[in-house]
Structures are given as structure tokens and as C-alpha cells.
Please model this.
Amino acid sequence: MNKIFAGLVFSILIIISSCEPVVVFKTPQPKGITEVSSFSPEFRGTFFCESDSGLVVVDENIIYKTHWFNFSIPENRIESDPDLEKSGESLMVKDLGKCMTYKIQNDTVYASIRLADTLFMLSEENILKSYKGHQVMNLKLKDDDYEVIILSLDEDSNLELKMATLPREVEELEKITSVKDVSYDDIEQYQVNPTQLEFDEILKQEIVFETCEYFMRVKIPMKDLYPF
Model:
């Protein structure tokens, strides 16, 4: 595989990779709140991710992030590179199993490929709850615990994505709810199972959930954000 497409594969791995959360929840949060079947309309839309310049789309029952990668390659490389194959108006990258649009100018091929990753999709295991103006996403993990992610709107209808992080002192969290150390190998991890009142206190004190991403609402077409 040539360096260009090795770089694309690496980019895909970066996009789809995820880390184990430091704080996991034994049950979907918050307790006692009925799950909903779709994101609230005011949360839906297209957003620009400031951290990596990707686009985040919040639809009725899914959140996904998309990136566009543009690159160029000498035209004579197309015929000699076994990884590449022209297919109509598209260029197939065999190792990736993906087609991309392209144009030829001055013996150089300019191509663009779109990569997308699902951040959350409602299902029987992935549960969404609407709570006090927030969208609380519960992603079921392999050991039946849940990763809890909170989506909030600011005054300009932009989105803040908050994930559970470990307080500086575990004792701070233990003052609110019971904490179980479930660390394994070299991974530090703690399990909690708060009541609704305890969950409220966790949100109020802001000792677990921290804003890790900020998504700015955009109202222009994707093609204008990422011109080919």
C-alpha cells in the first residue's frame, strides 16, 4: 500500500477508535426516567466540530461524524498502482473498499474521500433519555455496564458533549454515591450506580461530566464547507 492510502487507513483507525471510559454506570441514567425513541428536534442538525474540523450530524435516532480528506496523485500512478481502479466517474481504493470522486488537471488526479463514524445510534441496548434539558445517551458496554454521555444546548443552539471523567479525588464522588473499583490490567475504571437524586448531585457539582467537544451549528451545505 502506498503512503497516501496508508495515511487514509490510519485516519480511519483514528476516527473509529475509542477509549474505555474511566467512570461507568451499572444501569442507564438517570434512573426512573422513561427512555425516548428519538433526539429532541431542537438538538437535531449539522454541526462543525472545533477539535478536528469534522461535521457532526444529529438526526432522529443517530449521531455521526464525517470527515473529508483531499489529496492529489500523478495521473500515471493510477494505471500502475494495483490499489487503484477507475470506475466511471469514481476512483476505487481497493484496500479501503471505498470509491471517491476525482478530477484530472495538468496530469494530476485530485480526489476526495468521505469517512464517517457513528457516535451513537438508538437501539435496544443504546438508550436515550431526555432529562432537564439534556439528552442523556447510555451506550451499553461489553460487560453490561454503560457509558453515559450528555448532550446539552447552549444559548446559541450549539452543542456541548460531556463525557464522564474521574474527579481529582475519588473521595469527592464517594461523598455522593457508592463507588466500586473495577480497574483491570493497566486500565483505571470505576463503577457507580446512582439514584436519580445522586445523579442530579453529580450533574450539579460537575465533578464527573466534563465538556470534551463543542459542536457549532451550521446552516450551509456540506459542499460549501468542504469544496472539492
